[in-house]
Design brief:
Shape: elongated
Helix content: 40-55%
Strand order of the largest sheet: 10-22-21-20-11-18-19
Largest sheet: 7 strands, mixed
Length: 626
Amino acid sequence: MTEEAKTKAIEIGAGLLLCITAWAVTFYYRTSRTAETILFLLPYAVLSVSTYWDLIRMLIRRKFPDENLLMVIATAGAFCIGRHREAVAAMLFYQVGKFVEEISLSRTRKSITEYIDIRPEYANLKTGRNTEKIVPPQELKPRQVIVIRPGEKIPVDVVVTLGTGTVDMKALTGESTPRAVRPGDHLYSGSINLNSVLEARVVRCYEDSTAEKIMKLVENADGRKAANIRFADRFTRLYTPIVILLALLTVLLPPMMFDKDRMEWVYRGLILLVAACPCGLMVSIPMAFLGGIGSASRQGVLIKGGAILEKLTQVDTFVFDKTGTLTEGVFHVRRIVPRNMEEETLLELAALAETYSTHPIAMSLREACARQKQRPDGRRKVNDIEEIPGYGVKARIDGHEVCVGNERLMNQQGIFYDPVKEAGTAVHVSVDGEYAGYILISDIIRPGAERLMKWLHRKNLSTIMLTGDNERVAETVASGLKIESVYAELMPEDKVELLEEFRENQMEGELVAFVGDGINDAPVLARADIGIAMGGLGSDVALEAADIILMEDEPSGIINAMRIARATLRSVRQNMGFAIGVKTLLIVLAFFGLVTMQNAIAADMGVMVINILNSFWMMKYPEQGV
């Protein structure tokens, strides 16, 4: 229970005790009107002090008054016309409702944290050859070595140095199948070591580790207000003066028109203020968004706030990067076609030129070279490496200028090359301006990509693919996935320009989402209406640039994100419709004198409880297939 909830509980308890005392005294003893007023004024003062203080603070800060103003006018007015018991009862019910609201919101936040709290509690720091000590994860520093035993959470981001085994990443990514690990593999904090002792080298401090970043993102996710929440705020600012005006008209006009008891109409006007109190609406909307964000996090999807969740339901077009998003991004050398040299030599030159590149194609060339001859010849002198984004690399190897890249690079260097008609990505190589041959590399379409495309097409959403790869490869992938539009051989800046063009062509209320690998596509992720980072786990760029992060390298996670977003908005609309409908009915009944002040506040509590229950189920929204 939060401090605010504890204070509210004490306030309600004290007020209830004084209320019972006042009721008992007036029931068993004959008291004067003045004595009765004083007896009920005491519990009213205790119960309403926080409401009056909140109202005063809002006026000092020049904020427009909310439902507190309605309750203050209604209950103070009831006291003035001698309805002491009803004024105290209305304020008591109102404070109980605020208490339920505070408890519900804090429980929701706590439940979200408990569901996805993947932060470890301790680490086994290796202090000697056979010695270690238990330390808090916050004390670990890069390059230190830790020991991870079976069943333990990995405390910080590390690289395995000794041992093999399997790691459970479900709490982190939603991935149900344990992942096999060996020396050299990166492990992220929050994962669980399953079956063997591992030694690992720390690569990030605790505050920079994946688990800590993810938890901070989730805990702060309600910082971005959704349009529905902003609408509720605006609605209250407009709603409050309208309700006060209606209550004033109820007090003034009927007595003038029908010549009836003025005090009766004053009472009805005060009941109207209580009946119109929008507490149930105000608490249920943020709860639904919090529940949706927590549910998505448990399914391996990080959503940075309710505003993003709401915008996701307005996406009409999904734009995808190809490599590492729709395809595995793990390339394999299919064929080596040299000219005037051995296959091994051509592959080695390409691998040496790509020594420092992090592109998946470069990694596949180095791996293929390592398989053939353990590693590139260390006696070769490699320097002056220049990476040209969208083209390839240039390097000087043993004094010879070597260019490795796509057809654009060959054209830029004025080199005649062999055109490649086979499916796959051709990496062309030249030495001292002479064409040396090409290496054909192929990628694999992700299984989840086909599943995602089927779902998007069924929902009548547009799909577009952008890639820097050649048109032949792009068309092959797009054809297999039935993607509607394909743009190939793009430079990074071309992707940004095309995305801006797509956004300009959208109709009002329709948004464009870009799905990229979270590392090479940061500019496009940042410019899209919604940026979705595929496999952004552990990537600082993805965590910063993207609005939504799929923690597992699986594009079908977008299906769960869309389903949760739509279910959340459905829950919000249900809550808004139900609350406004009941309030309208109560206002009408109050005008005709068919409800009392206690009835009105009890009905408001009922609306709030029903809306809270309708919002709370979002936290346990199930994962589902296509």
